[in-house]
Amino acid sequence: MGHTHHLSSGLTPAQLSQFKQDGYLILPDVLSPETVQSLLTETHRLLHDELDLSTHPLTKFSTGGADDREHVGDAYFLGSGDKIRFFLEEDAVDGEGKVTRPKERAVNKIGHFLHALSAPFARVSAAQEGEDEGRLSPAGVARSLGYRDPRVLQSMVILKQPEIGGAVPPHQDSCFLYTDPPSAVGFWYALEDATLENGCLSFLPGSHRWAPVEKRLVRRRTGVSDEEAGGTEMVGNEGPRFPPGEEYGEDKKGEEEGEYVAGEVKAGTLVLIHGNLLHKSERNTSQKGRIIYTFHIIEQEGTVYDGKNWLQPPEDGFTKLYA
C-alpha cells in the first residue's frame, strides 16, 4: 500500500480541479454491479426484517424549505447516530398517523449508522485501497482532497418512493453536519438509475465558493438526553461560513448566479458533493423508485465538532476512514 497506490484509488488532477471548480463531481462505475446488487439486497432485507411499523414513532423527516419548516425532531431521530432507524415519507402517513401503504413503500430514509452496523454498507466506506483494483476508494478520494483524519459521521439510504417521493429544496450539507470550520463532503452513490423523472439531484455549480453556511441544525437543548433535547431547530451560524482557503467567500459571487444543472446518473455512479454546495432534488412522480446510498465525512483534525449539533458522536467517536 505504498504512496503510489493512493493515487490510483484517489482523484486524478483533472477530476480534482473539476471538483474545486464546480463543488461536485460525477464519477460513473465506481461501484461494481455486484456491489450495487448487494446494497439493494441489504436495503430490502432491512425494510422487510428490521422495520416494525407497530412500534415505530412515525417520525417524518424533511429538510425544510424556504419557510424553514421545522424538522420533525424527536428522540428517535436524535438517537439515530449509532443505530439503523427508519424515517417515513410524509405522504405515506395520513392525518390520523396511519401508514397508507406497504411498509417497504412508506420509508423515505434509513439511517444513520449503516456504515458501521451493516456489513454490505460498511464495506463501501471501508474499501481498502487496492481491494477493488482500478476503482476509487473513499480513503483515496479523501486523501486527494487533503483530509488529514477524515471521519464518517453519518450514512443513509434514501428511497425516493414511486409517486410520493418528496422534493428536497435547495440546501447545503454543512448546515446539517457543521464543523468549525466547515469540512463536510458527501459521497452519494446511485444504487438505481437516477433520472429527471424519478427525482435525480440538481446542483448549482460553483455555489460552494460563494454560498455561506448561514444556518445550522441544532438541538434545542444541549447536554441532556435525546428525550429531553426538545427536538431540533435551525439557528443562525455564528462560526465560520466557509472552509479555510482563498477560493471561498461571499465576494466570489459572479454577476450571474447560474442555473441548476441536473445530474442524471446510472446505478454504480459516485457523486462527490462539497458541504457548501447548493443542491436539490425534485419530487418523484414516476412509477420507478430511486434508491441511493450516501455517507458524509468531516475533518476531525483541527476542527471543532460541538455539542449543539443534532448528530452527536457515538461512544467511540466517529468512524475513521483511514485504516
TrEMBL record:
Residue spans making up a coiled coil are none
- Xref: InterPro entries: Phytyl_CoA_dOase-like
Which cofactors is this protein said to need? Fe cation
Q: What is an example of a Pfam family matching this protein?
A: PhyH
| GO molecular function annotations of the record | dioxygenase activity; metal ion binding
Ranges where the record places region Disordered: 221-256
Keyword annotations from UniProtKB, A to Z: Dioxygenase, Iron, Metal-binding, Oxidoreductase
- Protein family (similarity comment): Belongs to the PhyH family.
Official protein name in the record: Phytanoyl-CoA dioxygenase family protein
Q: Identify the species of origin.
A: Coniochaeta ligniaria NRRL 30616
